[in-house]
Amino acid sequence: MALGLFIFFIIICIIGVPIGFAMGAVTIASFAALGGDMMIIPQKLFSAVDNFTFLCIILYILAAEIMSNGGITESIVHFCDCLVGHVRGGLAYVNVLGSMLFAGISGSASADASGLGAIEIDIMTKAGYRREYASAVTAASAIIGPIIPPSSVMIIYAACAGGISVGKMFLGGLLPGILLGLSEMGICYYMAKKYNHPKRENRSSIKEIMQATYETLPSLILPLIILGGIVSGIFTATESGAIAVMYAIIVAFVKKTLTLKSFYECCVRSAKTTASVMFIIAVASAMGWAVTTLQITQKLVAFFMSYVSSPGMFLLIVNVLLLAVGCLLDTSPALLLMVPILLPVAMEFGIDPVHFGVVVCINLIVGLITPPVGMTLFVTSNVAKIKLTDLYKEILPFVAVAIIVLFIITYVPFLTTALPNWLM
After folding, report:
1. How many other C-beta atoms lie within 10 A of the C-beta of residue 218?
2. For the CA atoms of 365, 418, 420, 220, what is the dihedral angle to 10 degrees?
3. Where are the domains of the chain?
4. What is the distance, to the nearest Å, from the Cα of residue 254 to the centroid of all Cα atoms in its chain?
5. DSSP-derived 3-state class of residue 404
6. Chain segment 250-286, per-residue pLDDT in tens
7. Taking every pair of C-alpha atoms in the chain, what is the biggest distance, in angstroms?
8. Hey, what's the torsion of the CAs at 225, 276, 380, 262, to 10 degrees?
């Protein structure tokens, strides 16, 4: 029965049914086949989104929209250009470094690729870089957004896992996000030397760097407020979202970039973005009934405990499995489908749930730039106005580096557990 439902799900996804509706179709089919009470479905849909933790997703998204509306993306690019623009291939470093800073505001790969990416691709193209390469750097750096806190992906994992601190997940993703960014800069360095990429002739003066820092300071302070408040226990992750929105409104008001009309537009865009995520969360909760009824989790635990001898081997299998899943599904539905099944097995092997969560999240995030699907690749190709096939060729070195970083994180738990254990 489970195999039949899975095949049905894959088929309707392949024919182009949106993932949320595909999950809904499988849910209804499973209830009909297993004799479930259809009245449970609306109850599950409501109870899934009636979660205080999920409120911070829309609040973080709204804060990012308000900050971006104030021209913060341009100031981040200018700040990074002042720091590293004079190095050969410097605009590629600017692209990656800008994404690492913007990650502390948006927490979204799509927001990074469509907002910051549009500016970066045009600047790199005008400076003499191939547009395909500029687009690949943009797509690769965009996936740092959901890793460096705040991150909606980490919030969803914490909610799925139950009892896992959102603050610990945020801290767990900090060092891996920085490591991924530095690794991508390594690829940019190699490409710059190989293809003699252009550089800015003049270094920025101390005065210019200080001015750029002043302009970018509001965006740099926001993630510090969020993390600092959560780690110190001053407020919860959800409360930090409200603080972030208030801070963004104050900054936009002081800079005179926020009007009633623009604030309304920010709210509408945030609502649209959040609605798609919350719909998938709601449907996945109802789909969980079928998973429970078919005892998929129990059977999977028994299988792994019988045939897998070590936590390291289990993590290897999980990585291979999720890399394949990440190529087919977006991050949120993949988390909602796989975490309730795999986490109990990880717990049986004694794997730290925060470490396991960061590994799972980064694994699925890498899928965002992995051909042939790679949702961030679609966004970037549309923004850059290039063929998707051309982007596939350029992105492969970055995918390879991301997978290497993933396996380092997998087998060096210290990178994900050190900060949460030390600070929380």
Report:
1. 20
2. -70
3. 39-423
4. 30
5. helix
6. 888 887 877 888 888 888 888 887 887 788 778 877 7
7. 72
8. -60
Q: Count of CB atoms within 10 A of residue 309's CB? A: 10
CB atoms within 10 A of CB 240: 27
Q: Which residues contact 116 (CB under 8 A, 6 or more apart)?
A: 73, 76, 77, 98, 99, 102, 138, 142
Axis crossing angle, helix 72-84 with helix 90-106, rounded to the nearest 10? 140
Here the tokens at position 252 are 């936009």
Prediction pTM value: 0.82
In the numeric block, which tokens belong to residue 200? 């800015």
Cα separation, 233 vs 167, whole angstroms: 10
Collect all residues with Cβ–Cβ distance below 8 Å to 368 and sequence separation of at least 6. Answer: 109, 142, 143, 326, 330, 331, 374, 375, 376, 377
Which range, 205-219, 268-282, 343-357, is most confident? 343-357
What does the pLDDT read at residue 12? 74
In this prediction, residue 404 carries a pLDDT of 95
108, 99 Cβ separation under 8 angstroms: no
Q: In which band, very low, low, confident or very high, does the pLDDT at 410 lie, cut at 50, 70 and 90?
A: very high
- The whole-angstrom separation of Cα 101 and Cα 74 is 12
d(CA 40, CA 378): 36
Give the DSSP per-residue string, 201-258. SSPPPHHHHHHHHHHHHHHHHHHHHHHHHHHHTSS-HHHHHHHHHHHHHHHHHHTT--
Q: Which tens digits make up the pLDDT trace of 100-140?
A: 887 766 666 776 676 677 778 888 888 888 899 999 998 89
Q: Tell me, what's the pLDDT at 296?
A: 66
Question: Residue 243 is encoded by which pair of tokens?
Answer: 């603080």
3-state DSSP helix/strand/coil % of the chain, to nearest 5: 80, 0, 20
> Count of residues for the chain?
424
Match 């960061």 to its residue by tokens: 358
Is residue 174 within 8 Å of 146, Cβ to Cβ? no
* Cα distances (Å, whole numbers) of residue 270 to 58, 108, 118, 204: 6, 12, 19, 36
Q: Are 19 and 304 in contact (CB under 8 A)?
A: no
- Tens of pLDDT, residue by residue over 53-69, are 778 788 888 887 887 77
Is 124:95 a contact under the CB 8 Å cutoff? yes
